[in-house]
Amino acid sequence: MSKIVHVVTVKFKPEVSDEIRQEALRDVCDLKNDIPQIISASAGKNFTDRSKGYEYAWVIELKTKEDLSIYLDHSAHLEFIRKYKPLFADVLAIDYEA
Asked: Which residue range or ranges hold the Stress-response A/B barrel domain (predicted)?
């Protein structure tokens, strides 16, 4: 059975505190509580020197491409974006079928 994997990597603006960065990771994982289409959610801080400056990443797994659309348009996800996107210096998102 295939699934959809949504991967996001971010660079926070330098002035964003570590506390806020950790809050963002908790909040993105907590989206699973509000969006039933999410199979799993994980997030963490990079620990290698291969990330080209991207410091944090999260992975959201869903069942179908339609579920990805529902996730992206869900009010809980849109609220997360509204709250945290202004704090990002850069974002890279990739979606693939596994």
From this structure: 4-96
